Amino acid sequence: MMTAVRAGENVVVADFPVGHGAWTTWLEKELLDPWRPDEWDGPNWLFRGDLFNEATCAWPCRVATCGIGITTRNGFCMTCTTAYRRSGMNKEEFAATHVATTARRAPTRASGCAVTHDAQGCQRAASSRGLCAGHRDEWRRYSRQNATAVREQWSRTAA
């Protein structure tokens, strides 16, 4: 079975069976280790593009307190655009004084998982209450069976 990916006029054809294992193997061979090291998190297969890197095709919202990535230079994200239209200010004044709603701001860096079972600890990003998805599920199972368990103590011994 062949898989084709179209990007503009370019078509990349990869000759491998469609399936997670084959895809992972192929992708691991194609990735370059030193590629954008401060932005590519290889162990988690997560790219967090630096909005101030010229190689990134996204830019930060013009509101200094926002941080949302957008696809146009010197513009506002949707939330700030709505607030700007209601504000009655000019763009320069709004961009300099508006305080973006924190509930809608994108985090620039996710914190790491709280599990520290060895010197290095879990390298995955925290997704819920300080734990990565895998350790969150493990904690749920463990805490159901151990009603008096303390998560902070468990996170120092969990594997």
Distance between the termini: 38 Å
- Order of helical and strand elements: EEHEEEEHHHH
Would you report the number of β strands?
6
Task: Work out the radius of gyration.
Answer: 21 Å
- Helix vs. strand class: alpha+beta
What's the helical proportion of residues?
A: 25-40%
- DSSP summary: helix tally: 5
Describe the structure concisely for a colleague.
This protein is α+β, with helices and mostly antiparallel strands.
Write the layout of secondary structure elements.
Elements: E1 3-7, E2 10-14, H1 20-30, E3 40-41, E4 46-47, E5 59-60, E6 69-70, H2 78-87, H3 91-97, H4 133-145, H5 151-157
Antiparallel strand pairs: 1-2, 3-4, 5-6
Can you give a write-up of this model?
The strands form 3 sheets. This protein has a two-stranded antiparallel sheet with strand order 1-2. With 159 residues, it is α+β, with helices and mostly antiparallel strands. It folds into 3 domains: 3-30, no CATH class; 36-108, no CATH class; 110-159, no CATH class. The chain contains 5 helices and 6 strands, in the order ββαββββαααα.
List keywords for this structure.
159 residues; single chain; two-stranded antiparallel sheet; two-stranded antiparallel ribbon
